[in-house]
Write a structure and sequence with these properties.
Elements: H1 2-19, E1 30-40, E2 43-51, E3 60-65, E4 70-79, E5 82-87, E6 93-99, E7 102-108, E8 153-160, E9 168-176, E10 185-190, E11 195-204, E12 213-218
Parallel strand pairs: 8-12
Antiparallel strand pairs: 1-2, 2-5, 3-4, 3-6, 4-5, 6-7, 8-9, 10-11, 11-12
Length: 223
């Protein structure tokens, strides 16, 4: 009996050594393919086809530009089959993408801005005949109160710098009809991160290892 057990374990060891890989049960979360890689004004976007729910470390990755640098992927799962990642606009050309332990080799076409439209205004021809009636005379007295002009309050919006995440980057102004109060939260499109996020009105930036003084809307988190 003991000899039979020894022979069985010896045969199993030889099988593992010859194959090099022991198969495991399929994972509930897996990356099936890289669907697209496109350069935009706010950064380069990679879209993956996946199965299952990704979160935490599974939503991070990196990309290496051939004859260039290395960059971090910031990813968001949009639905059960789609993960969208964004990185620096410098990621173009031949790249190697690492996501969830898998490597993808692809080529990113350089970003080309759309040409701005040209509008042409055609002047109307003057009337061939003068009006039959002379214009009425202006009123003898001006109106008692001039019309009030609308008031608008504009505040800067700041987010983490996409390339280094070690400074606050100005991404635009939020203009509103009423003055802002500390703690107010708005939704604002970030062209660098290519997504919409919440920003909080604060007297200073969040207390990260780097800070920025002054009233503004800030992304309320540190890297």
């Amino acid at each position: 009996m003991k000899k039979n057990l020894l022979a069985f374990f010896a045969a199993l060891s030889l099988l593992i050594m010859s194959s090099g890989v022991v198969s495991a049960a399929p994972s509930a979360r897996s990356v099936l393919s890289l669907v697209s890689a496109e350069a935009h004004a706010g950064g380069t976007v990679f879209v993956f086809h996946v199965t299952g729910e990704f979160f935490g470390p599974r939503l991070t990755g990196s990309v290496h530009v051939v004859n260039g640098g290395d960059y971090v992927l910031d990813c968001t799962q949009e639905d059960a089959e789609t993960v969208r990642c964004i990185t620096s606009r410098m990621v173009q050309g031949y790249v190697v993408v690492t996501f969830n332990g898998l490597l993808f080799w692809t080529y990113v076409l350089p970003y080309t801005p759309r040409p701005s439209g040209i509008s042409v205004t055609v002047a109307e021809a003057p009337p061939s005949e003068p009006p039959s009636e002379p214009p009425s005379e202006p009123p003898s007295e001006p109106p008692s109160e001039p019309p009030s002009e609308p008031t608008e309050y504009c505040y800067g919006v700041y987010d983490l710098d996409l390339a280094t995440r070690s400074s606050w980057s100005y991404i635009g102004d939020n203009c509103q009809s009423d003055p802002a109060n500390y703690g107010d939260i708005i939704e604002y499109w970030n062209p660098e991160w290519y997504n919409t996020y919440n920003y909080k009105f604060m007297p200073n930036s969040p207390a990260c290892s780097f800070t920025r003084p002054g009233d503004a809307y800030y992304y309320d988190a540190c890297p």
